[in-house]
């Protein structure tokens, strides 16, 4: 049975999106992306300028990957900066897909909700397919949908912290209230179990970078995340049991003492 992820009218088999920064080498980045089976990779023109890159293999690998490129505006702190970078990325990477980041605070790299909505509106009017990196605030998410975003990427935790799904109440609320919107948990995922949990909760996909790139063995970790995302999605599709407070025996007994049961089995 096919269970495809559809974003802006394009379908994907994989529900794991990965970043391309922080790897020990371009070769390990390439191998890790392959091991993750990701079909969408994010990259930043600002942090990985092709003109300044000593080692051009990085850009060769990106071009050869066959993945949907998702340029991001990492590090941008104002709508103007983000729009400029988006336009440059569109030209260089030949795609109108954009992971929009407008950062509002240096301590936790929290998105600026006001700047995000303003920038998303402008970029969508220019024809971009915007995937905004946002907080898990329901009202903000609705405003982003109102200006034309078709996919939202709420954070699990601040970028690079590996803390997992910090505010499950907010995330669960988003999932319930925006049931027909593709929601991708972006950032703060530190372990495959956390990615699996996001998928089990019904999120459509996860995006992560640091947990793979900074692992002792990034390629092995990329494969671990691939398996976790597949497992979380399968569990969601299978329908998880409801949690309950009181115990319930998993081996039901008949309404008679066990020796009578044994006798009746022996007599049969
Ligand atoms: C690469 C990228 O886009 C990051 O900004 C993204 O949000 C991933 O965050 P982690 O590094 O915490 O996985």
Automatic annotation (TrEMBL):
InterPro entries for this protein: Aldolase_TIM, Thiazole_synthase_ThiG, ThiG
Record-annotated Thiazole synthase ThiG domain positions: 7-252
Annotated residues for binding of 1-deoxy-D-xylulose 5-phosphate: 160, 187-188, 209-210
Role this protein plays: Catalyzes the rearrangement of 1-deoxy-D-xylulose 5-phosphate (DXP) to produce the thiazole phosphate moiety of thiamine. Sulfur is provided by the thiocarboxylate moiety of the carrier protein ThiS. In vitro, sulfur can be provided by H(2)S.
Catalytic activity: [ThiS sulfur-carrier protein]-C-terminal-Gly-aminoethanethioate + 2-iminoacetate + 1-deoxy-D-xylulose 5-phosphate = [ThiS sulfur-carrier protein]-C-terminal Gly-Gly + 2-[(2R,5Z)-2-carboxy-4-methylthiazol-5(2H)-ylidene]ethyl phosphate + 2 H2O + H(+)
Protein name (database record): Thiazole synthase
Subunit-level organization: Homotetramer. Forms heterodimers with either ThiH or ThiS.
Its EC number(s): 2.8.1.10
Keyword vocabulary terms for this entry: Cytoplasm, Schiff base, Thiamine biosynthesis, Transferase
Gene name per UniProt: thiG
Active site positions, chain numbering: 99 (schiff-base intermediate with dxp)
Lineage: Bacteria, Pseudomonadati, Pseudomonadota, Gammaproteobacteria, Cellvibrionales
PANTHER family noted in UniProt: THIAZOLE SYNTHASE (PTHR34266)
Pathway given in the UniProt record: Cofactor biosynthesis; thiamine diphosphate biosynthesis
């Amino acid at each position: 049975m096919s269970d495809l992820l559809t974003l802006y009218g394009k379908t994907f088999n994989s529900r794991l999106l990965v970043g391309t920064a922080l790897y020990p080498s371009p070769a390990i980045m390439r191998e890790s992306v392959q091991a993750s089976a990701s079909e969408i990779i994010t990259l930043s023109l600002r942090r990985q300028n092709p003109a300044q890159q000593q080692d051009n293999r990085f850009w060769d690998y990106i071009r050869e990957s066959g993945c949907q490129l998702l340029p991001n505006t990492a590090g941008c702190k104002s709508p103007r900066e983000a729009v400029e970078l988006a336009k440059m990325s569109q030209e260089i990477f030949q795609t109108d897909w954009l992971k929009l980041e407008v950062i509002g605070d240096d301590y936790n790299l929290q998105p600026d909700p006001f700047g995000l909505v303003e920038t998303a509106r402008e970029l969508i009017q220019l024809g971009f397919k915007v995937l905004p990196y946002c907080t898990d605030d329901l009202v903000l998410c609705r405003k982003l949908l109102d200006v034309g975003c078709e996919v939202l990427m709420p954070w699990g935790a601040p970028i690079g912290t590996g803390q997992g799904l910090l505010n499950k109440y907010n995330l669960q609320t988003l999932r319930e209230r925006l049931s027909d919107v593709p929601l991708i948990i972006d950032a703060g995922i530190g372990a495959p179990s956390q990615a699996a949990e996001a998928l089990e909760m019904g999120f459509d996909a996860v995006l992560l970078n640091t947990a793979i790139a900074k692992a002792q063995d990034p390629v092995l970790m990329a494969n671990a995340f691939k398996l976790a995302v597949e497992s979380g999605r399968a569990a969601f599709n299978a329908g998880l049991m409801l949690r309950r407070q009181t115990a319930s025996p998993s081996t039901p007994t008949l309404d008679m003492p066990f020796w009578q049961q044994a006798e009746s089995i022996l007599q049969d």
